[in-house]
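Quick entry, no commentary yet.
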Amino acid sequence: MIKFLPAKLPKDTNIRRIDSTWDYKGEKTKSYTHCMHTYPAMFIPQIAKRLLEQYSKKGDTVCDIFCGSGTALVESRLLGRNSYGIDLNPLATFLAKVKTTEIDNKLLYKTYFKLIDDIQFINDKEITIPNFKNLDFWFKSPVIKKLAKLKKAINEIKREDIKNFFMVIFSETVRLSSNTRSSEFKLYRYAKEKLENYDPDVIGIFKKKAEISLEGMTQFYKDVDKNTWAKVIFGDSSKDNGIKENSIDCIITSPPYGDSRTTVAYGQFSRLSLQWLDIVDESDKVIQIDNDLLGGRATINFNHTLKSKHLQKVIEEIKIKDEKRAREVLSFFIDLEKCIKRAYLILKPQKYFCIVIGNRLVKQVRIPTDFIISELGQLNGFSCENLFVRNIPGKRMPIKNSPTNKVGALEDTMTKESIVILKKIK
């Protein structure tokens, strides 16, 4: 039976410590450059900051092996830590690089005002309409033209870091002016009835997001420790990404909660931005993102070397209901263990590996991912020092999903998440 104890936690994978001080309900989560762009399942900066303060010190080099849009990296630079971030989504690495690059607000505001003026003088003959599949399906014709004018004006900015800053805002504008339901991460087109009167104010959206982002960058430029650096790597965290063994003082990360196709579709969320930004120009390459992420390809069979008792139990339970889904879950944990092994190699002895994770539901079976990570960690050279449970008051995750694909059949997915603290033994 799973035990919940508010007292001091023994080193036992079957005990969670409920701690509401990790909830941060009602606190502002969009300060500094965290405000610049939406990204799926971002973990809030307060958690990153607290973990950094508790498990690292000023001058340390930390790493986020699933960095997403760079929350932990931004907080690292604010707290005087150097940082590496690794991610397999090219949109994520682009966002993380921009959010961790401080730019003088005077230069940004000067460029912004000029940019808004320049857009007014670009005519239809000067613009280049992008040529990617289903462009007209996802965007109305007037929106396409306005976005193309905006992109042209941004591309004329000479300084690369400033251009990239405004390209991030452009990316968010693309998402918010498209025909997709922006409240969701998967690509769902608005209903025909809504699209008839749908007329997004492209420039207005851009200006609103720009003004928020300019304030955030102004604050970041003022408070960032300019003696620190953040290096963002487009790569696979289960492989060698050029980070030396035994060189990292602390790893803080929040992995995907499950395979991308059935939990949070990072590839779908990123598709339109990547195509407009010319980072990825073909839909099939964007779809590949979801296949490349953890558990992106289901295992052929149930043969594996993972020795987690909790994992074996849930695999058997899911397998009874749906063999394919069971293989997808198994594939996710096979990939995750590879990342744990690589994390062990780059982390210094006696240092900490902090993982923020949710226990998702698959086929109405709750997967104790936190316990499984604790077990896999201990099998690969770590000790489990602590396991906290927090409520998720505002994280943008699917709270309900359909367990049976029946219309109206919904169930809770995740309203809590766990923080697993592992320590490299030697």
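second:
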Amino acid sequence: MRRFLCALVALAPPSLWGIPEIKLMSPTDHQVVQRHSRAEGRLTISGVRKDARGTQLEFRLLDAQGQGAWRQLDTGSEDAFSGIITAPSGGWYRLEARLTQDGKAVAETSVAHVGIGEVFLVAGQSNSANHGEEKQTVKSGLVASFDGQAWQVAHDPQRGASGKGGSFLPPLGDALASKFGVPIGFIPIGIGATSVREWLPAGVTFPSPPTILSRVTKRPDGSWESNGAAFGTLVSRLKHFGPRGFRAVLWHQGESDANQKDPTRTLPGSLYQDHLGRIIRDSRQAAGWEAPWFVAQVSYHVPGDEASEDIRAAQAALWKAGLALAGPDSDALKGDLRERGGKGVHFSGPGLRRHAAGWAEKITPWLGQQLGQK
């Protein structure tokens, strides 16, 4: 009897199976996929289809001129599907997918903005996040950010990082998009006021606590340890994107370790170098690949307390050791480039744009070398 019923279902016309449906899970709108060469990247197309018996799954990527040919995506007969395609660098593309039967489309869906370009993870403290004096906006239309759940145009404030103000990411993204001609994606996870000690893996110990204690714990022997929450977020994002799923980490942090009001909370440069080196090495191991890190020189507080040579030397030592690449010298940004008419630690609107230019000056020649460009 069961075989008889199955035979009837197989012979039944499509109209009795239900209306075919298709839904895309990946990519999502404004997603930027890291290209693996100057010319192309690998894009995962995945989703679910329903009542799709006897249909073919097809897709096409449409460029700005609306050009793009339909291609078949061979994913078997399961309701859930996933396939990887190679696509040319660029965007935004419009991805269209459909189910066809007897040469006719019976279900369709699309994603309006898909980019094959460059992706950067941005970590550290407030000046890596949204604590600037003036919110910045994307001018090129080619910059997006990912908050752990969804992609969106990278207008400030950046979801995924702390703060509600401005960041350097929109102008940096615009500069890189203009130079390299591809969409730029950011993964912001900066947390205001954090010490490098708070970014250590859970259980790593140190002799003295940072100024803020919410992410560290005192041990019975009087030493302190990180609770690992910030490092956990870092690793979570690294694993989400997978090996070589982004270009580099941009690290901007140091103010909360330099010249603290309570001198016992100031971190010696030797320990700063030690701790940040540990974060870089352990995060690479967790990610499963040697992700490049750019480390900025960061120790400025206010006029009169404009640099810690000890912390700056520690940051530079990581470059010299080959563990990190040189980021910009943000301590050099003073006067009206800082908030409240030059009285604060965070950047003003002009300061954010100058900060972005400093990052672009460091990233551009290095990225050009990676891509074989001059």
